[in-house]
Design a protein that fits this description.
By secondary structure, the protein is α/β, with parallel strands linked by helices. It is built from 5 helices and 5 strands. Bound molecules: 1,3,4-trihydroxy-5-OXO-cyclohexanecarboxylic acid. The site of 1,3,4-trihydroxy-5-OXO-cyclohexanecarboxylic acid has 10 residues, from loops.
Length: 139
Amino acid sequence: MKKLIIINGPNLNLLGKRETNIYGSMTFTEFFDSVVKKYPNIDLAYFQSNIEGELIDKIQEVGFTYDGIILNAAAYTHTSIGVGDAVKGVTTPVVEVHISNTFSREEFRHQSYISPNAKGVILGFGLQSYELAIESFLS
Ligand code: DQA
């Protein structure tokens, strides 16, 4: 059984009530439950933190044993050399995910410290971005 983890960064705990015009009205828990049901043959874990160092700790913790990391580092994507270095430092492949199309938004969202070391990047498909990332690990 493949072992995958979704790691979400700051403010993504507010999904469902935060800027719903951009991020939608579904909570991540609702979405995660539906994904777990849809993929019974995947061992899928979930971690969210608003704290940069906790995201780095989690990437290090899972990054040598899991089959894949699906990472939405949210705002830290655009600011954190530390999270970028963590992605670079582990052996587990990381797929970078964003709910919104960051390239259609403010210019500061066009920069990513994750992308250079990610296996791939999926963005702009709403919560479906996460599912597409899961699919990428199945093929
Ligand atoms: C985001 C895009 C980021 O620019 C933003 O800071 C987020 C969410 C997304 O999933 O679209 O918090 O990562």
